[in-house]
Specification:
- The chain is α+β, with helices and mostly antiparallel strands and 184 residues long.
- It folds into 2 domains: 46 residues, no CATH class; 119 residues, Immunoglobulin-like (Sandwich).
- It is built from 5 helices and 9 strands.
- The longest helix is centred in the first third of the chain and has 19 residues.
- The relative contact order is 0.15.
């Protein structure tokens, strides 16, 4: 079955904004009305919606508090562990968990930017992340570990968080996390 082309198609930008809830309410209603009446644009919006869902599923290794809340709202099963500087914790990646989040605690009240390195048990740098999101008020960096990381990284890692304060002072803290892959 062939769908007739639309004479005034909704732009890709508007479709993407529609699916990410970035349109103002009036424009959103206009797009929605058009999609209800236009099979061609409805087909296109289905493809855009699929793309938006796929992009939302991509989780960066460091997330903001807002991003974490959206993931939880979308049904991602999250296990959160608070980790203090210098501590070593074991976390379980059980079958009922989609995402492990390590809340690396630190005094970040004067931080201007924060970098995070992932090190192996011997101190070799596995991954460097520059200017990561951090929560100044809560004093934390949220590390998001996905299941497929278990195949890419050793289970025993150290997160080295380096914060540069507004006066240029560099403070470095380390957090050791052992990831245990539980089996069902």
């Amino acid at each position: 079955m062939t769908t007739r082309a639309c004479r005034s198609p909704v732009s890709f930008a508007d479709l993407a904004d529609y699916w990410t809830d970035d349109l103002d309410p009036e424009r959103s209603r206009h797009v929605e009305d058009h999609l209800f009446d236009c099979a061609s644009c409805a087909d296109r919006t289905a493809r855009v919606a699929e793309l938006v869902r796929a992009l939302r599923a991509i989780v960066p290794p460091v997330v903001s508090r807002d991003r974490l809340a959206r993931l939880e709202h979308d049904g991602v099963r999250v296990r959160t562990t608070e980790v203090q500087p210098g501590a070593r914790v074991t976390v379980a990646f059980s079958p009922d968990v989609d995402l492990l989040v390590h809340r690396l605690k630190a005094d970040l009240t004067h931080a201007f930017w924060v970098d995070c390195d992932v090190l192996d048990a011997n101190g070799a740098r596995l991954l460097g992340l520059e200017q990561v999101p951090f929560d100044r008020e809560a004093g934390e960096v949220l590390i998001a570990c996905q299941r497929h990381y278990m195949a890419e990284y050793p289970p025993d890692v150290c997160f080295r968080v380096s914060a540069v304060d507004t006066d240029g002072t560099l403070t470095t803290r380390e957090y050791r996390v052992f990831h245990d892959a539980e089996r069902a």
